[in-house]
Design brief:
6-stranded mixed beta sheet, disordered N terminus, binds zinc ion, globular, 5-stranded mixed beta sheet, binds adenosine-5'-diphosphate, Rossmann fold, 21 helices, Signal recognition particle alu RNA binding heterodimer, srp9/1, binds magnesium ion
Length: 621
């Protein structure tokens, strides 16, 4: 249990608590501060800790029964390294810390089996109690209202004019989000117009979308457009190893903001604090996060949108993990989707970022946009920069189209890792695997053009890859195309089966994707004859949520569940058989292409397309 300031328990309960604490402290041998920072934290002897405190080197400390963690100040007075030490019986510790200006708090021990020495289980509880008493004494003695005044919020404040003003002109490709946020700008600029009519100004707006789509940028643009102050803090900054810091930071942040109203508070990575409380913390029922979340809820309920216009914008890419309480009316009741840009959006974003680089006249941003489906704004910004770097490396005065072509590949698959060498057999397997994808993909209806096959390992995971580039953005796919995709995904594995008679682990990701797709066909798109046009999942699967997490399913009978499983399996197996059939009847081509690939490592362009035209569809597929 952490020491919490409010609500203050009555004195009698405190005394009971103390008795209980001492008793339990003595009884339980299993008390150890968690090593949730991992073993990497440096340890120092206790005397060193005391020395550092006396030398005013310590910024804050979190005092547990088995361990004291403390963070040093660096030269600029900012938080620095964190150390740990084993406490020694010292009832004066709280006073010492207080006198030397160390922010500190007592930490509750987690439930952790650990047998300590006799000393470590008798004495630390006494320290704990000492600190406990210290806090009581201080609050009883009319100390400052917040007995634990640790952790002033470290929100970064951007005020208009201070930095280059960001406006909606700097954001592109997210038109719907912009339209919704224009309204927020109006609220901030002329709150009276709304309140006089009796309308309530929204307090919280949640920006939801994948990383790098411009959520932070949009929030800054709102502040820039409205010409108000912008407080920004990241959810992960709230949640620290020091208990009690998060909630006091939230309080402090809102206090500061209210003084500057109208203004915007921007909380990035809201999910770091706003995770559903029921989900149970990974770090053992994270007390600290829960406290922070509660404080945030209290603050949001506390300010009255009537006279002080403080609008809280928050961003997350995992809205499904947020605590339901955050989404209630009066809190983050508005959600704005910030999705990946489409073709036109991508071109507009490229234009924005290309303003700062010297482009050759031949550069065709539209063509680049066409080749980068799925890229988020940040990827495109990165792409422009990569292209400029490549041009500079080649001593060119301007960035040319080829620079972009190469940059796309770099961004898509990570830098080439020629150094990671596959052995001959592995190389051979990967070659057949990739050609398998390409051959099946070439035959499938409406599938994207196979542009390149490579067995040069890239990035972390992919051993080789087959690059299919769409010629246009597609939003709707029909059943035949989805089945084609499944077959294409299984093409790799089928080739391995056909040629080597065995299967490697290399196809795991393909299988994952194929199975996901088949499941979606059955449970989301109602494409199964047997199960009919019903959505068996809860239907939250949006493009941006599609991160491989299975959707929750509706309650259903056992038979239905079984039928779904069978249908999914049927679809994947059908794709498998098709792939096998296609590869079987094009075996010569498979062999030739794989040999070519083994020699050249990369096959692309015209010659690849010509070769792939020779693939023929067997009767059975
Ligand atoms: P998020 O907060 O959604 O993760 P950011 O706003 O931090 O993304 O985006 C990072 C950078 O990528 C921005 O500073 C900007 O340069 C670029 N960027 C992202 N989205 C866009 C967009 N829609 N329009 C223009 N630039 C963008
Ligand atoms: Mg961001
Ligand atoms: Zn594969």
């Amino acid at each position: 249990m952490a020491i919490k300031k409010d609500p203050q328990p009555p004195r009698s309960r405190l005394i009971l608590n103390i008795v209980f604490l001492v008793a339990s402290g003595l009884l339980l041998l299993n008390i150890l501060l968690p090593g949730f920072l991992g073993p990497s934290m440096a340890r120092e002897p206790y005397s060193m800790f005391i020395h550092r405190v006396q030398e005013h080197e310590v910024m804050r400390a979190s005092v547990g029964q088995e361990e004291i963690r403390y963070q040093l100040k660096n030269e600029n007075g900012e938080p620095g390294e964190v150390y740990a030490t084993t406490p020694i019986f010292d009832l004066n510790l709280p006073h010492l810390l207080e006198d030397n200006g160390v922010e500190f708090a007592a930490v509750s021990p987690p439930k952790n089996q650990w047998l300590g020495s006799l000393l470590s289980w008798v004495i630390p509880p006494l320290i704990f109690v000492a600190i406990w008493r210290f806090f009581i004494a201080r609050s009883a003695g009319g100390g400052p209202a917040g007995a634990l005044s640790i952790g002033k919020s470290r929100a970064k404040v951007y005020v208009e004019g201070e930095s280059a003003k960001i406006t909606f002109n700097d954001v592109a490709g997210v038109e719907e989000a912009k339209t919704e946020l224009v309204e927020i700008v109006d609220f901030l600029k002329t709150p009276k117009r709304f309140t006089e009519l009796g309308a309530k100004i929204p307090k919280g707006v949640l920006l939801v979308g994948p990383p790098g789509t411009g959520k932070t940028l949009l929030a800054k643009a709102v502040a820039g457009e409205a010409g108000v102050a912008f407080f920004s803090i990241s959810g992960s900054e709230f949640v620290e190893l020091f208990v009690g810091v998060g909630s006091s930071r939230v309080r402090d942040l809102f206090e500061q903001a209210k003084k500057q109203a109208p203004c915007i508070i921007f909380i990035d990575e809201l999910d770091a604090i706003g995770k559903s409380r029921s989900s149970g913390g990974f770090y053992g029922g994270n007390d600290e996060r829960e406290q922070t979340l509660n404080q945030l809820l209290t603050e949001m309920d506390g300010f009255d949108a009537g006279d002080t216009t403080v609008i809280v914008l928050a961003a997350t890419n995992r809205p499904e993990s947020l605590d339901a309480a955050l989404l209630r009316p009066g809190r983050f009741d508005r959600q704005v989707l910030v999705d990946r840009p489409d073709l036109i959006g991508r071109e507009a974003i490229l234009k924005i970022h290309a303003k700062d680089v010297k482009l050759a006249d031949s550069v065709n941003l539209k063509a680049i946009a066409t080749r980068t489906p799925g890229f988020a704004g940040a990827d495109l910004a990165n792409l422009v920069n990569e292209a400029a770097l490549l041009a500079a490396r080649n001593n060119r005065q301007e960035v040319i189209q080829e620079d972009f072509a190469e940059a796309i590949e770099r961004v898509v698959a990570g830098l080439e890792k020629k150094s990671r060498v596959l052995n001959e057999r592995e190389k051979k397997i990967v070659a057949y695997h990739e050609v398998g994808h390409a051959l099946v993909g070439a035959l499938m209806p409406g599938s994207d053009q196979v542009e390149k096959i490579s067995i040069v390992p890239r990035g972390m995971a992919a051993l080789g890859y087959t690059l299919q580039l769409p010629t246009e953005d597609r939003f709707l796919r029909d059943e035949a195309e989805l089945k084609g995709q499944i077959a294409t995904l299984l093409g790799g594995r089928s080739a391995e089966e056909l040629i080597f008679g065995s299967i490697t682990t290399g196809a795991a990701n393909d299988l994952q994707r194929a199975t996901d797709l088949a499941e979606q066909m059955v449970t989301t798109y109602g494409m199964s004859q047997v199960l009919g046009p019903l959505a068996y999942d809860r239907g939250q699967r949006n493009a941006f949520l599609d991160n491989g997490m299975p959707n929750s399913r509706r309650p259903m009978s056992e038979q239905t569940a079984k039928a779904i499983d069978e249908e999914v399996k049927g679809l994947v197996e059908e794709g498998h058989q098709r792939a096998l059939a296609i590869l079987g009847s094009n075996r010569d081509l498979l062999e030739t292409l794989a040999q070519q690939l083994l020699e050249a490592e990369v096959i692309e362009g015209e010659s690849l397309r010509d070769t792939l035209k020779q693939v023929n569809m067997p009767e059975s597929a």
